[in-house]
Amino acid sequence: MLIRHAESEPPRPDGPDDLHRPLTARGHRFAELLADTGTPTAVYSSPYLRAVQTVTPLARAAGLPVRTRWELREWDSGLAPTPDYAEHYAASWADPTAARPGGESLDQLTARALAAVAAVAGAGTVVIGSHGTFVSRLLVGLGVAVDWPFSHAMPMPAVYRFRWGPDPVVRGPGL
Fold first, then answer.
1. Model pTM?
2. Are 58 and 43 in contact (CB under 8 A)?
3. CATH number of the structural domain spanning residue 137
């Protein structure tokens, strides 16, 4: 099960950095509802606070720890928070091989996402908490036709279920 984090506080110049942005009160309420979505054998998360907070109620209900893994983090776009981010993201989706200085391309993110999931896939029924662009690019890597409008419209939270293997079947919002 792949979960995009619930609603988080928006980035602000005077707010916490991206690693420490928490869920909103609404996001916490949605995260609590996820506790009833299944019984995993392992729960992994991006180390970003909003992703950890999203999967914590589910992990607690299953009596499991949340194991953070750096490779499950959000895309490193090479952009500072900016109000016109959607314009920049759309350009990246149009050329997924392009990377900004200090950032990774969307194709590099796809490879990272596939490798990260492969590393934990043998643990049984696994829950992974991550981020919208990570989830979108993992879906691309699994052969799902995903584009920028899909990624941009992905709800918070979004839950995708799939079986890891040569012919994955993916179910979730927008598919």
1. 0.94
2. yes
3. 3.40.50.1240
